[in-house]
Amino acid sequence: MFKPGLTPRGVAGGFKRIILQGGEDMNLQQRLDRIRQGFEKQAPPEAVALMHRVTNDLRNSGIMDRVLKEGQTAPAFELENSHGSHVSLSGLLELGPVVLTFFRGHW
User: Fold this and answer.
1) CA–CA dist 12, 15 (Å, integer)
2) How far apart, in whole angstroms, are the C-alpha atoms of residue 60 and residue 39?
């Protein structure tokens, strides 16, 4: 079952736990906010502006109407991770809650 706000866990297959200094008591949203704030402090202003523009474009596209909502069940799937290994949702769920992200590749 998909449940936003769960803390990510380290699992096999190349996934790593997000650890932020002084952030062990933060929930996922707080951790993501801290990562975003750190990026915004270090990135060139044009990169930050582009990130916000693209994020707003995505929100305005209606994509949020098509994402899973809290309590909905994600469909079963198997994908290749960044190391070329196949990872299934069911296998990850055996280890605990799952936070799914997509890595677009190397820039």
Assistant:
1) 6
2) 23
Question: What was the pLDDT predicted at 85?
Answer: 92
Residue with tokens 């933060």: 26
pLDDT at 68: 84
CB-based contact 77:2 (threshold 8 Å): no
Domain extent listing, the chain: 1-107
Convert the pLDDT of each residue in 43-89 to its tens digit. 999 999 999 999 999 889 998 898 888 778 888 999 888 788 999 99
Q: What is the DSSP string of the chain?
A: ---TTPPP---TTT------TT-TT--HHHHHHHHHHHHHHHS-HHHHHHHHHHHHHHHHTTGGGGSPPTTPPPPP-EEE-TTS-EEEHHHHHTTS-----------
Angle at which helix 45-60 crosses helix 28-42, to 10 degrees, equals 140
Tokens of 103: 């890595």
